[in-house]
Amino acid sequence: MSDQPSHSDSSLVVLWRLFGLMRNQRGWMALGLAMAMLSTLSGIGLMAISGHFITSMALVGAGGVAINYYTPAALIRLFAILRTGGRYAERLLTHEATLRMLARLRVWLFGRLVPLAPAALGELRSAELFSRLRADVDALEHAYLGVLIPLLVALLTMLVVVAATLVYLPVLSLPLLLFFLLGGALLPGWMLRHGRAPGAIVVACNETMRALAADGLRGRAELALYGAEEAHADKLAAVAARLRQAQCQLDRLQALGSGSVMLAAQLAALCTLLWGLAAQGGGLLAGPDLVMLVLLVPAAFEAIAPLPEAWAQLGTTLVSARRVFNLADTPIPVPEPGQPSPRIDRYDLRLRGVRLRYGGQSPWVLDGVDLDIAQGRRVALVGASGAGKSSLVNVLSRLYPCEGSITLGGTSFDAWRGDDLRAQIAVVEQRPYLFDASLRDNLRLAHPEASEAQLQKAIEQAQLSDYVASLPQGLRTWVGEDGIRVSGGEARRIAIARALLADPPILVLDEPTEGLDAATVTQLYAALDAAMKGRSVLLITHRLGGLANLVDDVATMQQGHIVECVPIADYLDRLTLRESYPTRG
Amino acid sequence: MTASTSSWLREQARPAHRLLAFGVTAGVAQAILLCVGAWLVAHMLAQAVLTGRRLGELWPGMVALLVIALARFVLGLWQRRMTFEAGAQVGDNVRNALEQWMRQLGPRWAVQQSSGDIVTRSVDGVQALVPYYAGYLPQVALTALIPAVILLAVVAADPWSALILLFTAPLIPLFMVLVGGTAERASQRRWSRLRRMGARFMDALSGLTTLRLCRATGREEALLAASGEAYRRETMAVLRIAFLSALVLEFFATVSIAVLAVLIGFRLMGGTLGFQQGLFVLLLAPELFLPLRALGTQRHRRMEAAAAAEDLITLLATPVAAVPSQPAGAHSNTFAARQIVLTFEQVSFGYEPERVVLQDLDLTVEAGTVLTLVGSTGNGKSTLLNLLMGFVSPQCGRILANGQDLAVLDMNSWRQHIGWVSQRAHVFHGSLRDNLLMAAPTADDTRLEHALRASALEPVVARLPQGLDTLLGEHGQGLSGGERQRLALARAWLRDAPLLLLDEPTQHLDTATAAKVDVAIEALAVGRTVIRVAHRLHALADGARVAVLADGRIVEAGRVADLRASRGAFAHLLAADRAA
Q1: C-alpha distance from B88 to closest chain A C-alpha (Å)
Q2: Residue B14 sits in the same domain as residue B145
Q3: A269 and B41: CB-CB below 8 Å?
Q4: What number is the ipTM of this complex?
Q5: Residue A280: how many CA atoms within 13 Å on its side-chain side?
Q6: How many interchain CB pairs under 8 A, A with B?
Q7: Which of residues 62-81 of B touch A (CB under 8 A)?
Q8: pLDDT tens column, B472-509
Q9: Among A302, B237, B561, B563, which has the highest number of CB atoms less than 10 A from its own CB?
Q10: Cβ atoms B265, A53 nearer than 8 A
């Protein structure tokens, strides 16, 4: 997801691929387009035939020969019905097609992103890129309704109208074509080119405004204390002024665009009148046909009017499509093996020379890690922040590609399918994500068939009972973005309950006590002790208190490798020895 | 949209009334020109078809038509200009009002808000208001006025046709109200559902790692497909009704043209109507319905503005009084001192009436001394600092600085005497230099270098690609928790204030960094009055002065060595701390 898509694919290739994704909806799309054409042409036909009809009737009234007035009158009614019904059908069909695309596109994108997370989606963590992805998907969904339909309808209408003038007044065809192109393509193109600079300013200003608004909220205390509130308000006002100026430019361009289409329509009508009157005077064009053309031409511009917006939308769609395809085409960081995962009966974990870095050039965060966790063994992993503790978790969850060898029960990690491996090794993340769903659904994420009894047991073991009891709606409480606010400590305990429900032979806990007060930590450790029975455990922590009865070994990590792994008793002994000679005080 | 929302929206339009009136006038002028143009076209065609006039005799009409076309173009641009200005002006007003309001609500309120939510409301919400004033509101007026102009012109030409139009035209709004009521509710439901589904998709993407760890991606994919399908079916059911209102409009617009054309045709044949009048009416008939159709395409703007307005109204309705605070500039008594003695006299405070945090608290801190506040979480340690900074005010009792009551001081001058190291210093959008200078706008480079050294920030600056000028904050480089705390420390150093407030400055740091920061703090504290909130107790020096806060008051105070021996509240806390 870079600003400049590396894809050099031409616009047509990108569009082709986009509409290729919507292959299954081709029938709906074609029907919608047909209806759009039908109703547009009926509207134009209604005006044209009405003009022809009343002129003929006026000539009859003025003493001309009698005519068959049933056919045109019937045609008028037919066009009126086709216009009305066609519009309704068009809307239903195009929306049906769009909604079908929407469902398909999202499922497709989700399927493509799953194997990339999180190793190849690092940048998506930024809220800004994420909201851009959201806008991109929105733009793609409107490609059919906002781009394809108006462009094709305008093109076909233009062809039909030009064909009609060729029949009645050939000399008019060329100027008419010119006005169509001017109002429908050249002017919008000019507008788009000139709108690019102010458009970029608008985007940049909006981002700055968001950043400033966040500053005004998160940094309000600093602003108040340092007397900088006035300066902050001034900064905000300055950005708002710049934004307003750019928006004004954009608005003027848009006004020019839509005004120009109208002007082109009137000029085209004027030309029709000019050449038509000349032809009629020369006896080349009948009176009713003249009036018909004068009404037909401006009505046809109805199909041109949506074009400026459609072209702009096309630009957005192409940029969005390139970005989304780029993202979807990212190489999968941890490929899945072709054959089924091995079967094992022992769960010894063995790491040898494991190395990991988060980018081709970045430093190694894991630099030759050797570690053994025999089945049923509990190991605490300690070390300064930045030593690589969490990276070890990333490797063990098989979400990041690494060098070196990791074996589980003697079988290589590479032979395991990710999901099968994660059924053996459950990870409690440092910052678990809570979904916009009920607490119950969040808990059952890893084990959707869990019974009520299993659920209750996991809640108890994770020290969540009091918390759940404190919620008025209990397990039905909505959490996540739209739900109640959950503290970091609570979220981590929910994640622990989640992992316990999955009932894995190996449990990896990443800083489970961070953000909990001393009393809760003590309770949690007591409960974990029971929950860990019979499992291998890797517990990452920076607090040593309470560990004595919980783990067997302590491994110390420093600058990307394990410097030692000793029994907990030895480790604590050494620590007490050091503490009795305080270094400061 | 509720009545209060629409009246709020209307209220905001007041300052832009003139601009809106100009815009609407320009729109009406265009409609009048349209009628004149149609009359000219009808006139020329009638002359040519019925009386055989040639182009040579009709050219003045052509010139007039060209002038009219250009005039309509210019008026159209002017109209957009006026209404855009109106929208922009309302946007600016609301934005300023919001900023003022947030200042009134103060830091205590700000800290409790979810930042994404407020940012969306105050930036995107205000943006959503603009098209309502620039597009929808003028269009409402024009939807009433333009048809009136056209009907008048038709009445003058042919009263019978006017009657037909008069019969169908008012029926449209009527039917649209009938169908539209349901349709609008339905389409609102559709919008919110679409948003919910989009949110669900984004939710799944945000939690993708968790989904993978929980082996739930396959299930989620199936759910996404099913919810998309269900959404399509539900939405189409809604749309079949929602599009009826458009169908009604289309039906009347089309049918009235068809009926007019047929009737005009037969009256022309019977000779009871002039051709010019008939053609004129037919040319104008479609124009009668255009404003209504344009209004339909603007309806979503109203919906978006209404949704934004509701959010903004709730935000602006947050009572300032609910959070007792003291905005800057409320009092004019300036404060100036080089040494500060602090005295709390019977201070009581609670964020909510039923939940008291501090109760009759008495405390004195001598000038130039360091006091460490301890106590379990949620016992009001941070509140005490907030009171000192004037972010909240005591409900009872007084806080005195050198004998002067904080409640009557000019907050700006008082706050200049405070240096503050918060738990999580905010990194502002801007360069590291900007972030430092906000504490001391006039500091020169030498002072900045000094501050960097004193707060152990030098290695951080060395790491940043553009040093002091590296862009930080939301869209720039991030700083780790420890680095932020050192940034706050550097700000306090630059502030060079007689009172230093430290809120657990080393809590989230690893031992090595914490030691560095501690050294920097000790150097900074010399000669100042310092209040330090501490969580970890075992590192406190024996000679440090400590006050234990529990149940809203100071339950124990003295030197660490004495308190440790006394087996009171402090000793208790120390034991708990060691166990964790």
Answers
A1: 7
A2: yes
A3: yes
A4: 0.85
A5: 28
A6: 409
A7: 62, 65-66, 68-70, 72-73, 76-77, 80-81
A8: 865 556 677 778 888 888 999 999 899 999 987 776 66
A9: B563
A10: yes
- The structural domains of chain A, with segments of one domain joined by +, span 11-328, 349-579
Confidence at residue A304, expressed as pLDDT on a 0 to 100 scale: 92
Domains identified in chain B, total number: 2
> pLDDT, tens digit, for every residue of A521-570?
787 887 788 788 889 999 998 777 778 888 999 999 988 889 999 999 88
**CATH domain A11-328 topology:** ABC transporter transmembrane region fold (1.20.1560)
Confirm whether A11-328 and A349-579 share one CATH topology.
Answer: no
Q: Which residues contact B559 (CB under 8 A, 6 or more apart)?
A: B542, B543, B544, B545, B546
For the segment B156-183, the average pLDDT, to the nearest whole number, is: 76
Supply B553's token pair. 């008051």
Q: Which residues of chain A have pLDDT under 70?
A: 1-9, 122-129, 481-483, 515, 517, 577-585
Chain A residues inside the 8 Å CB shell of B115 = 214, 217-218
**What Cα–Cα distance (Å) separates residue B246 from each residue in A86, B259, B298?**
12, 20, 13
Average pLDDT over residues B123-128: 88
Task: Give A225's contacts in chain B (Cβ within 8 Å).
Answer: 389, 415, 418, 420
Q: What is the mean pLDDT of chain B?
A: 85
Q: Do residues B176 and B253 lie in contact, with contact meaning Cβ atoms separated by under 8 Å?
A: no
- CATH number of the domain where residue B473 is located: 3.40.50.300
Residues spanned by the domain of B490: 419-496
User: Contact, B170 vs B289, CB < 8 A?
Assistant: no
Q: Which of residues 529-568 of B touch A (CB under 8 A)?
A: 539, 541-542
pTM score = 0.80
* Whether pLDDT at B465 is above 90: no
**Chain A: closest CA distance from residue B69 (Å):** 6
Percent of chain B with pLDDT strictly greater than 70: 90
Instruction: Read off the CATH number of the domain in which B121 is found.
Output: 1.20.1560.10
Integer Cα distance of A446 and B492 in angstroms: 47
Cα distances (Å, whole numbers) of residue A155 to A14, A26, A112, B54: 21, 20, 35, 35
CATH architecture of A349-579: 3-Layer(aba) Sandwich (3.40)
* Per-residue pLDDT, A2: 38
